């Protein structure tokens, strides 16, 4: 169903491109914005978006009950700390994709994250990231189109396409003359440092100054606000990646002030900050929040959950056709579970990601195959993006 | 000056102090191998840190003080709310849990980081110290987990430092029995479903360790079992299954932290002189009884012997030898180490029953070890330490040091997860991290450079034949000693090893 709509849009975009000297005002040919939020540590999807209407939910989740969930429809709800995300859902700007997983079926965080980031079918199957490869498909001027809000460069963003990174600084800035001399020295001796240093200089021009990281969720809000600034710069980045760790909740995860509850509140406020920071650009924005895998359906011996398989993925943004929970729901009876312990995966995360890259960022079939190389065809999920 | 001496000091050490390259130039390999000996006593900065018992109990003592403060404020300590982030302490009548946590633990953490830094800067055995850092990044207890905030120094002292040149199996056993590891990866809460306590949860009540918030309903927690297999011994994708993880978790039930009345040598505990060994307890009443099968092998031993037998088998497994060999070669030689070196180290590991002294000596003797082209990019911590070794005037206070590490993205003792800090260039050579290094170099050079300082001579002294022409020229043409020093610290030769 490559729709008339898409064909028209692509035609429209190229017509505009021939009519305007785009390089003069934008580094990229797209006016779309895309944000990936990586939730490291395996978020418990059944706490974030509990299936309260599933008749087996209560017994399967014995000991993990959460009070005050925010009802979405007959089957699903959101965790009570996701109030901003509930508002987005009500406004049709947030969708939940449930029982979703990457192709990874073992339970190592580090392999699972590696596969989620490299976008192939195996851990360490590729040493570049799928988001970097996606960036490489977007026509531009060669300026970085991607930014990682991070002091290290995550694998998902690593690769040949030029990207930058930024995190708040606590140190005073060096003078311009020293910057120039060092840039020259790197240029003469060390291409790796030269390229990275040039990207850093660019990032500093854009980012915010001043405000130091605060307590609670403020540090993440600051990163999301900075992401919005990068994405709002007229000739700036179009894709941003942000991450939050701390989802590995083996112990005492259910309480209202557990690390899981706190982390969900952080995510919730972060998305609100992204929307606020992007202002009118929010309508052109799609964001995905995804974790390497889900957690066991049943409580473990320490009031937490152990490593599992499928989980919940959040899609947010003005471009998202939201107000929906998208799930081929596998059920929670013991016989419904993957290996008798985990939520069974029924949606491939890559179908979600390629659906957005196709319908939002305008990537085509062979480009999508380069982003997510696969031995079996991946069918991009349609209808995730507003017409 | 020989290039081998520069490599020994940088690639295997923590960077040269002025005069050091010349001093070791006679036989750099012998200098490295002489460091492969147990340390006679703890370095003074580490010896001055709190005791193991204090490290282990600090968080739980703090929890009690918070409860007392809450009661004094007329609040129910079990109903405190975290601050919403908008303002610390809102919702609790001005009592901020986070604020109190930060006030209590940041100075303590900063003192530990400073002691680690001072030890690394002052040591005459930098290769030994690198190995301490390496192994603490293999057997990871991270203070990033709130309850474990004060624990890494105790773990380093009790488990890592004393086993650097011993057998791998001994380090593995010491780690798995250390209360910090049992806490960090949750095993102290894991209880055999068919153990005495598992079958009769009412037994739990009088045994409940209030300090550690034990669960009401006892059961398995597979966190430690999985991470031992995946991160500490065999390595991921080496053939074990989910069933093996679960079996191993059952085997490790009952491996827990001694409760004060039952601690052997209670007097030593009160005096704070007990180390981690004395705080291990095997609790038969929480241990899953009966034989267990792990990777096709049946372990029928009773009690703690069952887990010890598994750990010894894991330590002797070829997959473990290969995993450790790869990590060591990656740490010291190249992100993508030559397979021949890895194979040679793995063979040495197996042939010597995991003798880490022999394995490290084999590493030093390998051809690739002294290949002239640097293939490693320093981590932020090693970057700061090596600069401090080069600049005897750099003596930061703990807060300044902590801010430097934070801004470059690496807080010692607090790696983000049980897999430790990444050990490849791509993780550290990001735009932001490189910029922060430069900012730090600039600030440090500004503070230290005097009009009489000669950064060119210093570069020559610590980098010798590895100092390239372009860098030497850039330093020589700098408009001030401070700028010259900035360029030295930011130069590729100083950042790579």
Features:
heterodimer; A: 387 residues; alpha/beta; nine-stranded mixed β-sheet; two-stranded antiparallel sheet; disordered N terminus; B: 497 residues; mainly alpha; two-stranded antiparallel ribbon; 4 strands; 2% strand; globular
CA-based gyration radius of chain B: 24 Å
Number of DSSP strands of chain A?
A: 11
Form type of chain B: globular
Please report the two chains with the greatest interface, counting residues with C-beta closer than 8 angstroms to the partner's C-beta.
Answer: A-B, 75 and 74 residues
Number of helices of chain A: 12
- Low-confidence regions of chain B: 84-90
- What overall geometry of chain A do the principal axes of the alpha carbons give? globular
- Total DSSP E strands of chain B: 4
Largest sheet of chain A: 9 strands, mixed
Gap between N and C termini of chain A, in Å?
14 Å
Could you give the order of the helices and strands of chain A? Answer: HEHHEEHEHHEEHHHEHEEEEHH
Task: Work out the helix count of chain B.
Answer: 27
Q: Could you walk me through the main structural features you see in this protein, from its secondary elements to its overall organization?
A:
The complex is a heterodimer of chains A (387) and B (497). Chain A is an alpha/beta fold. Chain A has a domain of 229 residues. Chain A contains twelve helices and eleven strands. In chain A, strands 1, 4, 5, 6, 7, 8, 9, 10 and 11 form a nine-stranded mixed beta sheet that branches. Chain A has a two-stranded antiparallel sheet with strand order 2-3. In chain A, β2 and β3 form a beta hairpin. The N terminus of chain A is likely disordered. With 497 residues, chain B is an all-alpha fold. Chain B has a domain of 116 residues. A two-stranded antiparallel sheet of chain B has the order 1-2. A two-stranded antiparallel sheet of chain B has the order 3-4. In chain B, α13 crosses α14, α17 packs across α18 and α23 runs antiparallel to α26. The relative contact order of chain B is 0.12. At the A-B interface, α5, β6, α7, α8 and α10 of A face α6, α13, α21, α22 and α23 of B.
């Amino acid at each position: 169903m490559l729709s008339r709509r898409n064909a028209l849009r692509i035609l429209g975009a190229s017509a505009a491109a021939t009519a305007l000297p785009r390089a003069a005002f934008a580094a990229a040919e797209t006016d779309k914005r895309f944000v990936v939020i990586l939730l490291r540590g395996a978020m418990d999807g059944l706490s974030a978006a509990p299936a309260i209407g599933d008749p087996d939910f209560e017994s399967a989740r014995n000991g993990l009950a959460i009070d005050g969930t925010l009802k979405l429809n007959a089957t699903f709800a959101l965790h009570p700390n996701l109030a901003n995300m509930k508002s987005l859902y009500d406004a049709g700007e947030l969708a939940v994709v449930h029982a979703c997983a990457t192709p990874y079926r073992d339970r190592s965080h580090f392999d699972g994250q590696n596969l989620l980031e490299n976008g192939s079918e195996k851990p360490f199957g590729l040493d570049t990231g799928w988001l970097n490869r996606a960036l490489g498909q977007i026509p531009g001027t060669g300026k970085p189109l991607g930014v990682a809000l991070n002091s290290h460069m995550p694998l998902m963003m690593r690769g040949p396409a030029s990207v930058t990174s930024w995190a708040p600084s606590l140190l005073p800035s060096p003078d311009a003359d020293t910057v120039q001399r060092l840039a020259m020295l790197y240029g003469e001796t060390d291409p790796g440092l030269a390229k990275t240093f040039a990207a850093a200089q660019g990032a500093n021009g854009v980012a915010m100054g001043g405000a130091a990281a605060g307590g609670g969720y403020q540090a993440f809000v600051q990163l999301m606000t900075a992401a919005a600034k990068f994405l709002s710069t007229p000739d700036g980045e179009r894709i941003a990646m942000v991450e939050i760790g701390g989802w590995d909740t083996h112990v005492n995860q259910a309480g209202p002030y557990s690390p899981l509850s706190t982390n969900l509140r952080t995510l919730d406020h972060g998305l609100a900050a992204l929307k606020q920071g992007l202002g009118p650009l929010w309508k052109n924005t799609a964001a995905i929040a995804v974790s390497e895998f889900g957690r066991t359906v049943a409580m473990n011996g320490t009031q937490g959950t152990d490593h599992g398989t499928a989980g919940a993925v959040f899609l947010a943004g003005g471009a998202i056709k939201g107000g929906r929970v998208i799930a081929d729901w596998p059920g929670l009876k013991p016989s419904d579970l993957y290996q008798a312990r985990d939520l069974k995966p029924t949606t491939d995360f890559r179908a979600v990601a390629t659906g957005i890259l196709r319908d939002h960022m305008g990537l085509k079939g062979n480009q999508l195959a380069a982003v997510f190389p696969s031995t079996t065809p991946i069918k991009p999920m349609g209808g995730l993006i507003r017409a | 000056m020989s290039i081998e001496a520069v490599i020994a000091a940088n690639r295997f050490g923590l960077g040269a102090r002025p005069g050091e390259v010349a001093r070791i130039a006679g036989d750099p390999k012998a200098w490295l191998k002489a460091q492969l000996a147990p340390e006679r006593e703890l370095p003074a900065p580490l010896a001055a840190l709190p005791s193991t018992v204090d490290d282990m109990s600090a968080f739980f003592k703090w929890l009690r003080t918070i409860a007392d403060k809450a009661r004094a404020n007329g609040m129910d300590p079990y109903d405190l709310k975290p601050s919403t982030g908008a303002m610390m302490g809102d919702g609790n009548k001005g009592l901020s849990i986070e604020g109190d946590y930060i006030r209590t633990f940041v100075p303590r953490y900063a003192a530990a980081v400073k002691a680690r830094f001072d030890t690394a800067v002052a040591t005459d055995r930098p290769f030994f110290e690198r190995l301490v850092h390496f192994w603490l990044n293999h057997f990871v207890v991270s203070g990033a987990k709130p309850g474990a905030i004060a624990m890494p120094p105790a773990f380093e002292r009790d488990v890592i430092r004393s086993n650097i040149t011993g057998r791998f199996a001994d380090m593995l056993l010491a780690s798995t029995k250390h209360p910090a590891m049992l806490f960090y990866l949750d095993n102290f809460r894991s209880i055999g479903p068919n153990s005495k306590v598992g079958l009769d949860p009412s037994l739990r009540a009088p045994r409940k360790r209030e300090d550690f918030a034990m669960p009401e309903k006892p059961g398995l927690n597979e966190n430690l079992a999985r991470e031992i297999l995946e991160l500490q011994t065999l390595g991921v994708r080496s053939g074990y299954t989910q069933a093996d993880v679960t079996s191993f978790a059952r085997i490790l039930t009952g491996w827990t932290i001694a409760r004060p009345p039952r601690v052997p040598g209670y007097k030593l505990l009160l005096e704070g002189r007990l180390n981690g060994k004395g705080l291990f307890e095997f609790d038969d009443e929480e241990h899953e009884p009966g034989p267990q099968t792990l990777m096709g092998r049946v372990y029928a031993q009773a009690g703690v012997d069952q887990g010890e037998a598994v750990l010894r088998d894991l330590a002797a497994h070829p997959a473990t030898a290969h995993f450790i060999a790869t990590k060591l070669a990656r740490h010291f030689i190249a992100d993508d180490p030559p397979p021949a070196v890895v194979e040679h180290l793995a063979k040495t590991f197996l042939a010597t029953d995991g003798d880490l002294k022999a394995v490290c000596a084999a590493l030093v003797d390998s051809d690739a070890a002294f290949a002239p082209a640097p293939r490693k990019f320093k981590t932020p911590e090693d970057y700061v330490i090596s600069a401090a070794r080069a600049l005897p005037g750099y003596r930061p206070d703990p807060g300044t040091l902590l801010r430097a590490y934070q801004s470059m993205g690496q807080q010692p003792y607090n790696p983000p997860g049980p897999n430790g800090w990444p050990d490849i260039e791509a993780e550290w050579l990001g735009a932001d991290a490189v910029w922060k290094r430069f900012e730090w170099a600039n600030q440090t050079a500004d503070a230290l450079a005097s009009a009489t300082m000669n950064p060119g001579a210093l570069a020559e002294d610590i980098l010798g034949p590895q100092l390239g022409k372009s860098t030497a020229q850039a330093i020589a043409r700098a408009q001030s000693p401070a700028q010259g020093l900035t360029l030295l610290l930011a130069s590729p030769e100083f950042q790579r090893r």
